[in-house]
Amino acid sequence: MYTIGQVAEMFGLPASTLRYYDKQGLFPGLERTSGIRRFGDTELEALRVIECLKKAGMEIKDIRLFMEWCAEGPSTYPQRKAMFEERKAHMESEIAKMNRALDMLKFKCWYYEQAIQDGSEDRLEALIPDNLPEEIKEVYENAHAR
Amino acid sequence: MYTIGQVAEMFGLPASTLRYYDKQGLFPGLERTSGIRRFGDTELEALRVIECLKKAGMEIKDIRLFMEWCAEGPSTYPQRKAMFEERKAHMESEIAKMNRALDMLKFKCWYYEQAIQDGSEDRLEALIPDNLPEEIKEVYENAHAR
DNA sequence: GTAATACCTAAACCTGACTTTAGGTCAAGG
DNA sequence: CCTTGACCTAAAGTCAGGTTTAGGTATTAC
Prior knowledge:
The structure is a homodimer.
Chain A: H1 4-11, H2 15-23, E1 31-33, E2 36-38, H3 41-55, H4 60-72, H5 77-118, H6 122-127, H7 134-144
Antiparallel strand pairs in A: 1-2
Helix pairs in contact in A: 5-7
Chain A binds a DNA duplex through residues 3-5, 14-17, 19-20, 24, 34-37, 59-61.
């Protein structure tokens, strides 16, 4: 069992955030001894899941719903699974979009590299979009793909 | 040249957002005819870059800085390149983190699949962390890697 | 002529996710 | 004893990134 300060330390979060999560209902079964929160393995695992679901773009109120399902027992396995499946799909599409944005960034890095060498964008603008060198063509096309 | 409504349509954004971006200085050279905004190729390209940089986790005020550099001419190529390089690195690390979170989601999907079949988490809990089947072991380890 | 559209502005409002503030309890150390 | 540190609460404040509102102009459609 850990105090709020220890958990804050472990996860690199301010204690105020943990209190806030608790208030939002993210630790349904959290115990206390004389008013003081006691974080156990359940809560540490919950926190790992919270970090994951937040990175997956989920809102606090939906994470709370998941935590409530966990507290309800086996009857909610299907809902829990469906939530993870939905998040997985969402996240895969987010990662795909980010990779496209990343290709745009790569292209811009190459572009400014050239522009610095040339001293202007003139030569470069003549290359876009059909006369790009092989080395960068694919990145450019991926970045601009619909 | 396009009106705000046409651009909104093209990018699937509300016109209010485009006005907001303009107010935040994201279209430094935007022209107007009798008060009405006229979006040209420069602004469309700016908007593509804005969407990219937003996806890369950049704040509006930093995007404005970039747009101002663009308006200043070739002397700012190095700053612009540095900004993109920094964003590229940031984004690569974000994508890596998201892939770890995704592996957590994949693991949870598998976990609940099993739990539903078993009717409880008991057998499952005995498998974690050292007796997981090959099919899911790597995903689990990646998800929990420091 | 007047009504519907599409544009404009400034300013107020909203949301999510925290963070800060102000005030209080309690145990240990000097 | 009394101060320091770690905990507690409720409530107010903050911030980014928009969105909505209220009121106005200009063009086109009937």
